[in-house]
Each structure stands twice: as structure tokens, then as C-alpha cells.
Amino acid sequence: MALDQTILIATGTALLFTGIASISVSKNLLKSIMSFQVAVFGANLALFASGMGYSPRLLSDAFVVLSVLVGASVEAVGLAIIVVVYRKYGTLNPDEIRRLRR
Amino acid sequence: MIYWAWLSWVIPLLGVPLVPLVSRIDGRLRGWLAVVFSGLGMAAAIYGATTFGTSVTEGYTLWLPQLNVMLQVKVDQLSALVGAFVSFVSFLVVVYSLGYMKEEPGQSRYYSLVLLFVGSMMGLVMAGNLIQFYFFWELVGVCSALLIAFWTDRPAARKAGWKAFVVTRLGDASLLIAVIFIAVTFGSTSFDTILGPNGIPTLATGTIFALGLLMFIGSMGKSAQVPLHAWLPDAMEGPNTVSALIHAATMVNAGVYLMLRMYPVITLPQLSGSLTDVILAIGLLSALVGGACAFAADDLKRVLAYSTISQLGLMFAAIGLGNLAAAAYQMISQGLFKALAFLAAGSVITALGTRSINEMGGLARIMKYTYAGFLIAMLGMSGLPPLVGFWSKDAILSSAFTAGALQSLLVLCVFTFTALYSFRALLRVFHGKPGWTKAPKESPPTMVVPILVLALSVLVAWAILQAQPLLSSVSWVPSAATLATSLTVLGLCAGIAYFAFLQDYQRVLGVIQSNRGLLGLRGFLHEGLGFDRLYQWVYSGVMRPLSRAVSYIQTGLIRANMALLLLAAAVLFVLFAMGVL
């Protein structure tokens, strides 16, 4: 495995776990969405890096583009939900939004 | 290129998206479109069966290049014959649907799913490799579940759909394990490769046994064998056409078809008959359980459903006895007379608006054509020579005679049950005192004509079937011993049924109702020998506490879930770093 590939995969993994960790500590849903994007881009980076070294690298690149698009639309949906949640509850603290919990 | 083998399943599949499209033009076109597409498929399949020359497997397209899976068709005696039979019954049932589904809402969904089912079933029959086979195997299962739950406003129908899906899934999972194992071991799942000398026969004996058993469990789920049979009686909540097409004539045969395909493997000499013994035992058990329950059921469709379980059990028994031709023959004859019975029963149920045989009776004069169809179906099922059911039963009986006394006795028991419940259904529905108040009318021609065509085929199909090389070992001249035995059983049962269900019905009913033991037995048979209660017990005793225990991890807090995820990732990472994984 080439050095740059190792660096890229390590960075991607680090970003992924940073994102997950910051979701688990953030007390604001907006920040959760941002952390989620960080995690997704970490995964995208690792996916992109894993395609390095193959002569036509188009497959992994195509998947990365697809993943970026899907991630963007997921973010849009998430933000829309957050708007509705804010109107309904008047707060964005996930601990206070308990309607869907048992 | 063998065009017909491709066209026979591609044409019905092509019709699937067209059904909702033509409904934009005119709603009535949907049914006729389905008739045309299934008719074209039937034309291709029947043309293929009549011009069949040599066995070929051909595939042109690499379907899944990563797995080295081709889109293949395997054309041999078995697939040509079964394909022709499947498409023939499908076509007639679609024509019957024109009358039966006339007033129903949701026809786009109905005809799309039926065409999808027909195409998938033909694809399953023609499949040239196991992955393709499994793909269509799942598709017919999905179609079956969705069509059982067709009347989505009935809670019972929705539940029955789920039940069929979940129970057959148990078998499917087992088949999937076998398919994956074969694909990984041989790098190819083509039937020609895995059944050939370099395929499964090279494996160790224990592995072959395990593979065969896994596939047989898959067959048990699809073909409703004990203990995976409990979904079939409930599946009767679906429309009658669906019961006739999927749960009597075609899909439930898929398991038997798989066993017939794998026949060279399950009868390998190194297994020394261990696998066939298992198949024989399960088959006979199902045949007896199904027969006993069919005898007690009061719902006409459930009677037929239990009898399907029983007849399918006979097919597996024939495979277990090593009589491939008898199993294939029984599969086709069962499909013909059971589809006929369901279509005739559907005609009665539509006319009366009830499924309970206690509210039927005395219909022979009023619904003449339906009566003729049901009569021929029941006589065919009970094995009256020379109807189509007789020859397969005769071949199974003669195999049982060769195998031993116990097998013969059990097979004769199954025949007794078959004859008794057939005559019971016939006499209670069409003879005796009417249980209805408003006289029904005969069904429209779109329903009557398919019944009559199927009745004709039950009467004369033996002449065509026995000319097939695959089935030629089913003898034209039954031996005196088997003929005498089966005719004696048939005559005795006819006599008993005449007195018990027609002549002295009230007195027999009185005896049963005054005797607590008999009443209890009837109740026990009514609820299908308590299998449902057993499954309910397993669910509430084992599965529900387990799921409740697991649900404590589900706090519903995003932050807690994410922390757990992180923890799991950390554990995995440590394991990786330590070199455990």
C-alpha cells in the first residue's frame, strides 16, 4: 500500500470516528447534522483511497461521487426535519425531544 | 438458440409493467392484456414441449460477472414438460380471473402480480443454474405472499400473507446456505456442472448429505411439508384464482421440482439411501397429517389446501421411494385436478358467498358445469382409472409394494384419506340437503370454460403424459395387485362416504356430537393438529422475551446509540490490532 493511500485512509477513518464521537456528545441537532457530514466525508475519503492503485480507478470514483450526492440529499432531508422539529418543540436538544421514545 | 425457452418466461415478465399502463386507456384491457401475455408464454412453452429434441443448457449473457453467473436456460425432458404444464394452468387461471375478479378493485396490482408470478415460475422451471433458480424461487415467494394479502382490508388476509412469507423464509434461508456453499466450492452453480461427475459427487459423503438436507428443508418450506406446512391452510385467505394457481398447481410444486432437479445427487450410491429415507418419512408424515386435517375441515378451501399438503407429501414419498417418474407424474396430475377443484370451488363460493361446506349442499342440479368439473377433480384426486390421478398413484403404490410392508400400508392409508375427504367434499357441497336459502346461479362463461377445459385435461391428459419419455416408466398396464388394491380402497371409501355423509349424515353427526372423545378429536383436527399453537408457544415463550431483552439496548437516544457504535468500533479495532480477526 502506497504511503499517500495509507495517509488518506487513516485520515478518512479518523474523520469518520470524529464525526460519530461528536454526534454522541453534541447537544444540538444542527451540530449532529454537521458531525454526520464529517463522518460521511471521512467514509467517502476512505472509499476514494481504497480505489487507488487499480489502473482504471473509475469504479471507486463513481461510487464516491454517488455517495457525495446521496450524502447531500440526506443532509437536506435532515435539515428539513430539524426545521419541523424546532417548530414543534421549540428546542433542538435531542435529550428534550422525547415524543418518539418509549 | 432455443427461442421458446427464453420467450416462455420473458414474455409474461414483459407484460408486468404494461398492465398499469393500459389501465390508462381502459380498465378492462388489463385482464385481456394478461390473457394475451400468458397465452403467448403458453404458446412458446407448449411449442417447446412438443418439438423437444435434445437436452441443452444455453446461456449468452453474463448476468453477474463478479460471481460468474450466466443467465441460462436448461432445456431437458423435465423442464419442457413442467414448463408446458405450468403455462397451461396459468393461462386458464388468468382467463378464469376475467370473470372472477370482474368487480374487484385493485386489478392493476392483481394482474401485474399474476404476470410476475407466471414469468418467475417459468423462469424457475427453465433456470440453468442455482443462483438464477434461487432468484426466481424468491420472486414466486414474494408474489405468493403479496397475492395472499391481496384483499388488504381484511386483517386475516394480511396476517396470512405475512405468515406465508415468514414460514417459507425459514426454508429459503436453508436453501440459500446450500446455494452459497455450492457457489463458493465449485465457482459455478450451473446444474450441468454441479450435477456432473466433477460436481457434488466429488464431495465427502457427510457434506453431500448436509447439502441435500438443506435443499430439502428449502423444499419443505415451499412445498408445505410438515412442520413447515402451517402457512398453506391460512393462505386460502387470498383470492380463489391465487389459491388455484399458486397454492395448488404451480408454486407449491417448486420444492418437488428442486428435488427432481437434484435427483442424481440425493440418490448417490455413497449416501446409501439415507437422504431418500428422510424425504420418504417427511413426505408420508405430511401426506397423513394433511389427509387427516382435510377430513375434518369445514372450510371448503381449507379442505383443498390440506389435501394439497397431502398430495405434495405423496410426491416426496415417491421421490423417497426412488420413483422419479411417479413423482413428476403426480406433480402434474395433482396440479391439474387441484387447479380444477379450486376453480370449481371458486365458482361455488362466488355464487353462495360463503366458504363453509355446512352452508352448501344440493348444488348438483343448479350448477351443472361446476358440478361436472368438481366431480371430475375429486374422482381424479381419489384415483379412479383412467383419470390422470390414477396412474401416478398406481406407480407410487407399486414402488411402495416393492419397498416393504410398512411403506405400502402407509401409502394405502394416504389413499384412504384421499378418497374419503374427496368424496366428503363432493357429497357435502353438491348433494344432500341445501344449507343455503337463496338459490345461486351458474357462473359466467369466462369462469365455466376454463373449468371445462381443465376437466377435459384431467380426463385425457394421461394419454399425452404417458407418451413422454420422462414418464414412460409409469406403466400403461397396471399390475393386477396394485389395481385390485387401489380399486378396493376406492370402492370401500366411496361406500363409507356415501353412508356417512349423505344417507345417514344426521345420525353420524349425532354420534360425533354426543361423544366427547370424537368431538375432541374433531376439534384437534380442526385446528390442524395444534401446529399453530406450538408455533405460538415458541413465539411467546422464546422469541418475545429475547426481543424484549434486546430492546433494553435501544434507548432511543441518538447520543447513547452513537456512543455504543463508537464503543463497538473501538472493540473491533482492538481485535484487529491484536490480530484476532
Mind explaining what this structure looks like?
The complex is a heterodimer of chains A (about 100) and B (about 575). Chain A has one domain: Helix Hairpins, CATH 1.10.287. Chain A has three helices and no strands. In chain A, helix 1 runs antiparallel to helix 2 and helix 2 packs antiparallel against helix 3. Chain B is built from 24 helices and two strands. The longest helix of chain B has about 30 residues. The termini of chain B are far apart. Among the domains of chain B are: about 250 residues, no CATH class; about 50 residues. In chain B, strands 1-2 form a two-stranded antiparallel sheet. The radius of gyration of chain B is 25 Å and the shape is globular. Chain B is mainly α.
Write the layout of secondary structure elements.
The complex is a heterodimer of chains A (102) and B (581).
Chain A: H1 3-25, H2 29-50, H3 58-89
Helix pairs in contact in A: 1-2, 2-3
Chain B: H1 3-22, H2 29-50, E1 56-64, E2 69-75, H3 77-100, H4 107-126, H5 130-148, H6 155-186, H7 191-195, H8 205-222, H9 231-234, H10 240-249, H11 254-261, H12 263-266, H13 274-296, H14 300-320, H15 324-352, H16 368-382, H17 388-403, H18 405-430, H19 445-465, H20 480-503, H21 505-514, H22 516-526, H23 531-551, H24 558-578
Antiparallel strand pairs in B: 1-2
Helix pairs in contact in B: 1-2, 1-4, 2-3, 2-4, 3-4, 3-10, 3-15, 3-19, 4-5, 5-6, 6-8, 8-11, 10-14, 10-15, 13-14, 13-18, 13-22, 14-15, 14-18, 15-16, 15-17, 15-19, 16-18, 16-19, 17-18, 18-20, 20-21
